[in-house]
Amino acid sequence: MTRILLAELCQPHDVAIRAARALRDAGEEVVYTGVLGGLDEVLAVVDQEDPEALALAVGSVQGERLLEAIVTALSELPVMRIGIDTDTTQWSERGAICATGSCSRHRR
After folding, report:
1. Does residue 23 form part of some domain?
2. Which residues span the domain enclosing 7?
3. Cβ-based neighbour number of residue 56 at 10 Å
4. Distance between CA atoms of residues 99 and 108, nearest Å
5. Which one of 27, 33, 37, 92 is least enclosed by Cβ atoms within 10 Å?
6. Can you provide one Gene Ontology molecular function annotated for this UniProt record (predicted)?
């Protein structure tokens, strides 16, 4: 079981809840934070929760910029980008529930 911190960047997105459910149903431990709006906020939550991977729901240009800053700041942590058009319905069936696989644009 992987401990995954799931956050929405800058604004709420329905896909975050779908992703949390898909990850949970696949047996992952999901810590859902809701909306986080700044780098310091994300870093503080990561420090507090000590996740093995970070999943970020992004749906705006501001969120994309924040994502880039997060990926740079947390170079040792696997980061998965979840876009507003991400289809999470078959993740576990496809074996795509991973933060280091091809399902992530910002993978490590």
Report:
1. yes
2. 3-94
3. 26
4. 8
5. 27
6. cobalamin binding
Report if residue 101 sits inside a domain. no
Number of domains in the chain: 1
Query: Would you state the structure tokens that stand for residue 20, as one six-digit string?
Result: 């949390």
pLDDT of residue 68: 92
Residue from 21, 43, 40 nearest 32 by CA: 21
**Phi, psi torsion values for 32, nearest 5 degrees:** -95, 125
Task: Pull the structure tokens for residue 103.
Answer: 């399902």
Q: Which CATH number covers residue 82?
A: 3.40.50.280
- Residue 41 covered by a domain: yes
DSSP string, 47-107: HHH--SEEEEEE-SHHHHHHHHHHHHHTTTS-EEEEETT---TTHHHHT---SSSTT-TT-
User: Which of the residue ranges 9-13, 16-20, 54-58 has the most confident prediction, judged by mean pLDDT?
Assistant: 54-58
Report CA 6 to chain centroid distance, whole Å. Answer: 4
